[in-house]
Amino acid sequence: MATNDTIAAIATAPGRGAIGLLRLSGPQAQTIATALCGTLPAPRTAGLRAFRDVTGAILDRGLVLHFVAPHSYTGEDLVELQAHGGPVLLDCLLQAACAAGARVARPGEFSERAFVNGKLDLAQAEAVADLIDAASREAVTAAQRSLDGEFSRQLTQLAEALLEIRVWVEGALDFSDEDVDWLADARLHQRLQQWRGELALLQAQTSQGRRLRDGMTIAIAGQPNVGKSTLLNRLAGVEAAIVSDRPGTTRDLLREHLIIDGMPLTVIDTAGLRDTDDAIEREGIRRAWDVMHKAEAVLYVSDDRDADSAEDQRLLQQLPLQIPVLHIRNKSDLSGAPTQVLRTPRGIELRLSAATGDGIELLRQQLRELAGWNPAASDKQTIFTARTRHLVALQAAAAHVDTAYQGLLHQAPAETIAEELRLAHQQLGEITGQVSSDDLLGSIFSRFCIGK
Ligand code: GDP
Ligand code: ZN
């Protein structure tokens, strides 16, 4: 994809500000900037210039900075005009640039060009967007590490090691008529197993990085009055939800964003589940079921004094099978039973008291486990930002390598094994963008801000 047009965008946030930035990138960037500013300063040095529109009228005076290809963010000629940050003024500048031959950039197009020109790989380009979107200090550090190429470096190492294994297996294809059985060599099995262990490590880190970026959404559900809202307030550490003795008080969804040991969580309190003729309450209950189906986990709350009631059993059975359910037996202070984690044939139950806070630490621990969150690994040394797309590709790579390994153990034909390893390799390449489709690129870069 050769880019022969020059793109322009206002790169600072919309609205008024002290400074506003107009960015140009492409083969005509210098020519267009010259039309606006008269002359350009030497590359990489700032120069004060008057900015003019097509009629020659001065719009503003400001600094100009230009970078010559390939030594720029995009890898193309790139010019930045620093004007005063007025929306109308910046719009006039953008129009002047377009009149001089530029085209308004699509969201993310500067980064897309950086990717196309090999300045960033795809995982790094995504990290640029993640850095801009980062909602916590941890997320900033993690995105910065990805942008630095930490994730890409580990992927490249894995890909190179896999390539060596592939060369070995494909060698077996080429020399299949010889007496030596290449594929039976214990060293090959060992290498493959070791590689699989390294991949598992990267998967764990990636899953942690994905959590840091996307968090996890959990629904709190159960019958009325069992303490759902009290539990949410206890987890949030603030009075977010209305707690009331009157059943049916939480009629709509209540969303709270929490951070537990650095892990972002969205917890949704839902309307109590019961039969009712009240139309508003019924709508709340319908939404509650909707949320339970979309959540990544459900905290099903019941009153410990009555936790094995037929109604609770009935409701628990209606919960979507594929979603992990943590059964909270609340009000342990009233039942008098010890707070603890109970492993039952139906899954994990947790007895606690939302009112007193007894057992809440056990719940936090269970939530960390559910999310696959390792607080020790969330320190700055090992974490990088990652996306579901990355995790899915790593999982697919793992599955192909597992199939290849099984093939080795069961003397599958070398062709089959080689093909599985090739597919695994391809999955790794999709993360950094060595293998990519236009659809994938489009969906990634269209979510960027304009001017980035
Ligand atoms: P929800 O309808 O499930 O959201 O229940 P609420 O959180 O509104 O609580 C209903 C009632 O139970 C309120 O009076 C709470 O104070 C009380 N409650 C909630 N959790 C506990 C608990 O752990 N122990 C005791 N003793 N009371 C609780
Ligand atoms: Zn409630």
TrEMBL record:
<keyword id="KW-0342">GTP-binding</keyword>
<dbReference type="Pfam" id="PF01926">
    <property type="entry name" value="MMR_HSR1"/>
</dbReference>
<dbReference type="InterPro" id="IPR025867">
    <property type="entry name" value="MnmE_helical"/>
</dbReference>
<keyword id="KW-0963">Cytoplasm</keyword>
<dbReference type="GO" id="GO:0003924">
    <property type="term" value="F:GTPase activity"/>
</dbReference>
<dbReference type="InterPro" id="IPR018948">
    <property type="entry name" value="GTP-bd_TrmE_N"/>
</dbReference>
<feature type="binding site">
    <location>
        <position position="452"/>
    </location>
    <ligand>
        <name>(6S)-5-formyl-5,6,7,8-tetrahydrofolate</name>
    </ligand>
</feature>
<dbReference type="Pfam" id="PF10396">
    <property type="entry name" value="TrmE_N"/>
</dbReference>
<keyword id="KW-0479">Metal-binding</keyword>
<keyword id="KW-0547">Nucleotide-binding</keyword>
<keyword id="KW-0819">tRNA processing</keyword>
<dbReference type="Pfam" id="PF12631">
    <property type="entry name" value="MnmE_helical"/>
</dbReference>
<dbReference type="InterPro" id="IPR005225">
    <property type="entry name" value="Small_GTP-bd"/>
</dbReference>
<keyword id="KW-0378">Hydrolase</keyword>
<feature type="binding site">
    <location>
        <position position="23"/>
    </location>
    <ligand>
        <name>(6S)-5-formyl-5,6,7,8-tetrahydrofolate</name>
    </ligand>
</feature>
<keyword id="KW-0630">Potassium</keyword>
<dbReference type="InterPro" id="IPR027266">
    <property type="entry name" value="TrmE/GcvT-like"/>
</dbReference>
<keyword id="KW-0460">Magnesium</keyword>
<dbReference type="GO" id="GO:0005829">
    <property type="term" value="C:cytosol"/>
</dbReference>
<dbReference type="InterPro" id="IPR031168">
    <property type="entry name" value="G_TrmE"/>
</dbReference>
<dbReference type="InterPro" id="IPR004520">
    <property type="entry name" value="GTPase_MnmE"/>
</dbReference>
<feature type="binding site">
    <location>
        <begin position="225"/>
        <end position="230"/>
    </location>
    <ligand>
        <name>GTP</name>
    </ligand>
</feature>
<comment type="subunit">
    <text>Homodimer. Heterotetramer of two MnmE and two MnmG subunits.</text>
</comment>
<dbReference type="InterPro" id="IPR027417">
    <property type="entry name" value="P-loop_NTPase"/>
</dbReference>
<dbReference type="GO" id="GO:0002098">
    <property type="term" value="P:tRNA wobble uridine modification"/>
</dbReference>
<feature type="domain" description="TrmE-type G">
    <location>
        <begin position="215"/>
        <end position="372"/>
    </location>
</feature>
<feature type="binding site">
    <location>
        <position position="229"/>
    </location>
    <ligand>
        <name>Mg(2+)</name>
    </ligand>
</feature>
<dbReference type="InterPro" id="IPR006073">
    <property type="entry name" value="GTP-bd"/>
</dbReference>
<feature type="binding site">
    <location>
        <begin position="244"/>
        <end position="250"/>
    </location>
    <ligand>
        <name>GTP</name>
    </ligand>
</feature>
<feature type="binding site">
    <location>
        <position position="250"/>
    </location>
    <ligand>
        <name>Mg(2+)</name>
    </ligand>
</feature>
<comment type="similarity">
    <text>Belongs to the TRAFAC class TrmE-Era-EngA-EngB-Septin-like GTPase superfamily. TrmE GTPase family.</text>
</comment>
<feature type="binding site">
    <location>
        <position position="119"/>
    </location>
    <ligand>
        <name>(6S)-5-formyl-5,6,7,8-tetrahydrofolate</name>
    </ligand>
</feature>
<protein>
    <recommendedName>
        <fullName>tRNA modification GTPase MnmE</fullName>
        <ecNumber>3.6.-.-</ecNumber>
    </recommendedName>
</protein>
<comment type="function">
    <text>Exhibits a very high intrinsic GTPase hydrolysis rate. Involved in the addition of a carboxymethylaminomethyl (cmnm) group at the wobble position (U34) of certain tRNAs, forming tRNA-cmnm(5)s(2)U34.</text>
</comment>
<dbReference type="GO" id="GO:0046872">
    <property type="term" value="F:metal ion binding"/>
</dbReference>
<dbReference type="GO" id="GO:0005525">
    <property type="term" value="F:GTP binding"/>
</dbReference>
<feature type="binding site">
    <location>
        <position position="80"/>
    </location>
    <ligand>
        <name>(6S)-5-formyl-5,6,7,8-tetrahydrofolate</name>
    </ligand>
</feature>
<feature type="binding site">
    <location>
        <begin position="269"/>
        <end position="272"/>
    </location>
    <ligand>
        <name>GTP</name>
    </ligand>
</feature>
<dbReference type="InterPro" id="IPR027368">
    <property type="entry name" value="MnmE_dom2"/>
</dbReference>
<dbReference type="GO" id="GO:0030488">
    <property type="term" value="P:tRNA methylation"/>
</dbReference>
